[in-house]
Specification:
This protein is mostly beta strands and 91 residues long. It has a domain at 8-66. 4% of the residues lie in helices and 29% in strands. It has one helix and four strands. Strands 1-4 form a two-stranded antiparallel ribbon. It has a two-stranded antiparallel sheet with strand order 2-3. The longest helix has 4 residues, at 38-41.
């Protein structure tokens, strides 16, 4: 699995159905086994490892975004149209 870590200010905002898990993990000697929230652990999990024989020991933040089981790629329904309020005249 390829992991792409994206700072919060650069997140993609889309109207697709998704579930998320965020957290912090610790890498030791270049490998981290990320503990997933128990609600998601039965359907996903991952290991992070450094490339080029890296041996770092550090903490990192992660964000997992997944489509719910059985979800289609349909976008969420459009929001109802907002109506501009009529101006109020003060006398």
């Amino acid at each position: 699995m390829r992991i792409c870590l994206v700072p919060a200010r650069y997140r993609l905002r889309v109207g697709l159905r998704t579930i998320e898990d965020v957290g912090t993990a610790r890498m030791s000697a270049g490998i981290a086994n990320v503990q997933i929230d128990p609600d998601f652990a039965s359907v996903m999990g991952f290991q992070v490892s450094e490339t080029q024989r890296g041996r770092s020991s550090l903490e990192f933040d992660y964000r997992i975004v997944a489509h719910p089981l059985g979800a289609t790629a349909d976008r969420l329904p459009p929001a109802p149209a907002l109506h501009k309020p009529k101006p109020i005249t003060v006398r």
